[in-house]
Every structure is written in C-alpha cells, then in structure tokens.
Amino acid sequence: MITLDGLTKVFPAPSGGDPVVALGGIDLHIGKGSIHGIVGRSGAGKSTLIRCLTGLEKPTSGRVEIDGTDIAALEGAALRAARRDIGMVFQQANLLDSRTAAKNIAHPLEIIGMPAARRAERVAELVSLVGLEGRENNHPAQLSGGQIQRVGIARGLAAEPKVLLCDEPTSALDPSTTRQILQLIRDLRSRLGITVVIITHEMSVVREVCDEVTLLENGTVSQSGSLLEVASDPTGPLASELIPLPPAPTGVDDVMVDCDYGGNSRMRTTQDLIDLAATYGTRATIVAGTIETIAGVQVGRVQLALHNHDGTPITRPGLQQFLTDLREAGVVATEARR
C-alpha cells in the first residue's frame, strides 16, 4: 500500500551553512491493512516523513507511492485528488470550536463538494462508526478528550481514504482513554481494511496496537520489522524499550543472569528457564522481569537469581553450562553485572 523508495529530503541552511538532511534515503514498505508504528526521538525526521507522505513537502529525491501512485510526482488538482486517499488524525484534533461534532466531521466533505443529502448520510455513518451517538450536536468544549479524538478520527475517515495517518493520536489522553482510542483504531482497521500509520513516541502504543514498527534515527531507518521480530531481537535498538527490564532488587547475593527469550527461542516461557536450571540442581528465582505476549508468542526479559537447592552458591562451571544451554536454545543470556 505504501512504498518509500530512496526518500530524501534536504533543507537549505537558513544562514547559508551546511544543508540539513531531514530524511537520508528511506526505503520502507507498509502492507495493505496493517497498523505500522513509526517511532524516533525529536528531530529523527518523523514530521518531515508525514509531510512527504501527504504531499505537503516535496522530496529532494526518491518516490512516495500510495496504492501505486507516486504522490511526489503530482501537482495541483491531481495531488488534491490523491490526498483524498489519505486521512489525517492530529495530536490535538484541531477541531473548529464554532462547529458541532457533526459539522466538524462534515467539513472535509463540504470542501470536496459532496451534496448535502449524501453528506448528512455519511456523517451519520461516521458518528455511529466511532461511537459518538448522542454527541454529534455538541461543540468541542462540551466533549471529553477521548470524544474530541473520536471526532478527529471520524473527520479523517470522512472521504473514505485508503490510508489513515495518525500523528501522536493519544499523547494528550489518559491511559484509560488511550486504550479506548487504540481499540477503536484496531476495530476500524478490521472493519474497513484501512492501512494505518501511527507516529508516536509511546512504546505502550506500539505494543498495544501495531503489527509492525520502524525506528527512525537521524533521518534514516535504524530498525524495521514485525513487532514480534523487533521485540525478540535483544541486540536491536528497540527491544529494550518495547520490553524494558525493571531494576533488580538490592541486597541479593546470588549469581544473577539476564535472559531475553521469545520469537525463535526454544524457551517459550519463564517456567522453561526455571526448569532448565533445575536440571543442574539449581534453583532459579525471577527477581525482575517484563513479559509481553506479542502475536501469540510470549516475549520476555527477565533477571534470574541462581543458587543450589542446598542454599550454596552455584559453581562457576555450573553457571557456564547453564549459560551455554540457554544460548543453544536461542536465549540471549549473560551474567548480570553487580
């Protein structure tokens, strides 16, 4: 559905110095019907990428294809027509205060000249779709933050786009409302078959709703893949943020081992790790850990404290054999530094 091929955007320096490379040759494919998260620190190029996707910014070089159409090559009326395939949801929704929820949803339909009768039908469909029945005649000041974002989503879907771009859609919401909005996005993808791109800095959003994730760093793709692939790669830059290891408790004298498992690992649960340790007469206790189920697979980062069943410390040869067997089973295992 979306293909970026060698996408580059270079801005001239305002003071005549070195040009600023906002995007440095991005290659990325986002499949139809997927929910794809794009993450990165401030200045990584996320905003420039969105502007290139919507045709608001012309790339310096490269292609931006949406459903086979090169957005970057279009001008004027052709570009405006192509933009109807792209819906946009903003962080603050940016509703018109003087308009009711229904009239805010109708606004893009008025711009494209949809007849009033059909416009009213479409607004009613969208109000029902996003769960705003009974609130359509309220102004933004009479709506909660979650309801305002539902209006923004409905407005983004008004022209029946093929792609929905969401720029930090939940960063201004509380955790409960965030979960509701993410569930709505997931339901809309399932019901409409729409492709969703979420720009976010919140890893909880990526874990909750995304099928795939891409990390931008300094205008280039640092890592990209399915959520399971990325979370299961402890050597990658995103795994520790998607599956963070909380601080271990102090005052533990046992030998500590950090374990990352999941994906291609033959160790499928934390109990598998504990059972393997038991084969050496060793007791393994989880002292810290984060465990998530992604695409039906348990992915975890845990820290184990090891000692023999009789209370004596595990021997160095026993520890090395345990680490070796873990690694042969596909677990990334290292002795924790104290």
TrEMBL record:
InterPro entries: AAA+_ATPase, ABC_transporter-like_ATP-bd, ABC_transporter-like_CS, MetN_ABC, MetN_ABC_transporter-like, P-loop_NTPase. Keywords: Amino-acid transport, ATP-binding, Cell membrane, Membrane, Nucleotide-binding, Translocase, Transport. Gene3D superfamilies: P-loop containing nucleotide triphosphate hydrolases. Residues 2-243 form the ABC transporter domain. Transmembrane segments: none annotated. The keyword Nucleus does not apply. One of its GO terms (biological process) is amino acid transport. One of its GO terms (molecular function) is ATP hydrolysis activity. CDD domains: ABC_MetN_methionine_transporter. Pfam families: ABC_tran. This is ABC transporter. It comes from Brachybacterium muris UCD-AY4.
